[in-house]
Amino acid sequence: MRPDIDRLIDWESFYQKFIPSLKTKGQELIGLCPFHNDRSPSLYINRKTGQYDCKACSATGNAWTFLEEHAGLSKDEAKAYLLNAAGASAGKKRKITQLTLEEYAAAKKLPMEELKKHGLVNEKNKLVIPYKDETGLEVAKRFRHSMRGSVKFSWVKGASVLPYGLWRLSVAREKGYIVLVEGESDCHTLWHYDIPALGAPGADTFAAKHAALLGGLTVYVFKEPDAGGETFVKKVCSSLLAVAFSGKAYCMQLPGVKDPSELHIRDESGFLDKWNTALKMATLLDLEALGAVAGEVIPGQPFIPRKPDNWYYSADGVFGYDSEGSEKKICPVPVILTKLLLDVDNETEKVELAFRRSGGWRKVITERSTLFQRTKITGLADTGLPVSSENAKDLVRYLFDMEAANMGFLPMAQSVSRLGWIGKDKFLPGVGEGIVLDIDSKRSMAKLANGFSENGNFEDWKTAIARHIRRNPIARLMLAGSFASPLLSLIGHRNFILHVWGASRGGKTAALKAALSAWGHPDSIMVSFNTTMVGLERTCEFMSALPVGVDERQLAGDRQEYLDKLTYAVACGQGKVRGAKSGGIQNRGNWNLIVLTTGEESLSGDTSHAGVKTRALELYGVPIPDERCAREVHTLVSEHYGFAGPEFIRRFIALLKIKPQVLEQDFKHVLGVLEKSYPQIIHSHLSYFAVCAVADFYASQWLWGCSEEQAKLEMTEMIMAGIKSASTSQEEADYAQKALDFTLGWIASNSEYFKDNGSTTQQYGFFKPSGECCIVPEVFKDALRKAGLSVSLVLKEFAERGWIETETAGSGKATYSVRCYWKNSRVRMIVFTNCREFEDAF
């Protein structure tokens, strides 16, 4: 190639044809790498030389290698293209264009109209081949990019690999037989001759679930004359054997050609004669023998990926070849890729790998940036993977090549690193089919995650709960709160705390365990007040929509400020902004749930702000009066658990599909009734009662078989008893009034310090003849602080209600202290306007 080609070609224009996402940054071009599933631009291209380097997958090269590996050109074709781009002549030139339906039809010698009937269409720079199920519904797409080259096919993101031609199985059943081939073009050829065919998009992709569709048919497996053909036959036999296929299966070949498509291209007129001859010469397959060979995998292997070139794995480890062709072991245990995971919350992709150690397979989910960088993959050594700085480079290359060899074949699954709602119709635990819970990224939550399981007998649980929990209003409200937690986000309701407190031996812990047992093992999913704020935030973030159970409020001691902050943090629904180790900030978790707490003391204190009272519904009483019953509940919910919550969610999903607005309408109706009946109760508390009432109403019908009228009656009785247990009025929650009560009591108890008796005793202030009480600001503020009251909030509330005098400063802003004459000096004091009753006593 001419040495000045770098100067003659505009590399930005050159690469822009292939990578539309390119942007200029100084002397480099940056865009999405076409050699891997790139989500953030990681491909860097030198604008002067045309050399590229991917920072994510380590793909490197120049324009020549790019044309060969990405565009699928031969060396001569790449050279011709580059010379042409540089303005030189190189004999035969090839203009790079998209693969079109017209080109494909011409190459395969098939009528375009037939291909269109199969759904093939042009799309940008590729040919789209739709995959349909038996009903004709499109379920996946495969793209064909070129007729030759290393990158010919790819799948639409998230597609499941399945046989091609399922929608034509009815034709096969009419004829009584089916021909299994590799790829779509052989299907197109055989369908052209009215021969029933089903195509596997890869030699080792045919599975038992596909074989189950072939019952009642005679199967002909077409074997191509290469190693892939051998693999295909063995894989089909293994799959047929797995489903106890009772029909006959034959192996057939076409002498002198690779596949049906090639025979049609070479000899269209003689195709049927040669095909029918090959069909008669087909040999009966021994499924037992060939299936056993195909099944020769490592015991317990979770997935059988395609082996990448120049690498292989066995029970003895992973092996590769050095530059001289000599075999070398790069890992002492077998390591494979098993799955790709797409996080539904942040759309990042992870990879699941498995390795065999100590007689079993271990699975690890990790970020792509960890798996495919030799400086980071060593971090997986803590999982037991034998990787170190010595073999990291080879292991990264092996895994990267394995992914490339299995592009489109590795299963793709959605994942989350939390519980709760996934969209509108999936929920973890219990209603999340196809969703993978990625707890590798949150290993501290493993105990919680493992606690959400089913055990025992659902009917026994329902019977015991009906006898010991649903007959006691406070215990029943706790259970209703457990069911109500996932409903908050559906009606746009805020988070809140349901706190049950009272004397010991009242069955509070037993009732809490019963409420949590609707979802899983209560001891595993319950936490205590002996935790940090960060720990509770992390728990709420992971639970997302599920109820969080926190037992033994007394463990927090007299840390009222901590409890107040905890209440606000839970109600906020979002964690604090925190820095990440790698720089920047961590992702902030969100939650929308109910926290169920118990204890022998109230959650709020005398100094708690009104906001604490409005965010926590506190019930005083005995959830389970009979101590013997409480012991039975403890035992029962440790043996039977995990059924009710998922069943409740399944029923709600089904209901909302029919009546999307019913939950919101029911909630508003109940809340409206409560507002009219109990106007003196804090509105937020009535809202909490309403959402619990709706949950109880539906749970009664769906889980315990109550009629609608009976469910309404029991719901009403529960709420009436609950309101009596709470009985927090608007006045009781008034923070300013509590602060004023404290102030008046403080003034009365310190009356001697408000008299001027001529002594040297410290004086806090004085009373004006008109009755106002004047207090030295710092003395009063110090008294508020010692009482645990907010100085700024108290003074602001007092000023707004006219309980203290204010002045307007030069800036126009009101000040909470005013100038007074005291002891022949002009000083600033806090002046109370309604303390005459104490002045008269002094």
Automatic annotation (TrEMBL):
<keyword id="KW-0863">Zinc-finger</keyword>
<dbReference type="Pfam" id="PF18662">
    <property type="entry name" value="HTH_56"/>
</dbReference>
<dbReference type="Pfam" id="PF01807">
    <property type="entry name" value="Zn_ribbon_DnaG"/>
</dbReference>
<dbReference type="Pfam" id="PF06048">
    <property type="entry name" value="DUF927"/>
</dbReference>
<feature type="domain" description="Zinc finger CHC2-type">
    <location>
        <begin position="29"/>
        <end position="83"/>
    </location>
</feature>
<protein>
    <submittedName>
        <fullName>DUF927 domain-containing protein</fullName>
    </submittedName>
</protein>
<dbReference type="InterPro" id="IPR040538">
    <property type="entry name" value="Cch_HTH"/>
</dbReference>
<dbReference type="InterPro" id="IPR009270">
    <property type="entry name" value="DUF927"/>
</dbReference>
<dbReference type="InterPro" id="IPR002694">
    <property type="entry name" value="Znf_CHC2"/>
</dbReference>
<keyword id="KW-0479">Metal-binding</keyword>
<dbReference type="InterPro" id="IPR036977">
    <property type="entry name" value="DNA_primase_Znf_CHC2"/>
</dbReference>
<dbReference type="InterPro" id="IPR050219">
    <property type="entry name" value="DnaG_primase"/>
</dbReference>
<keyword id="KW-0862">Zinc</keyword>
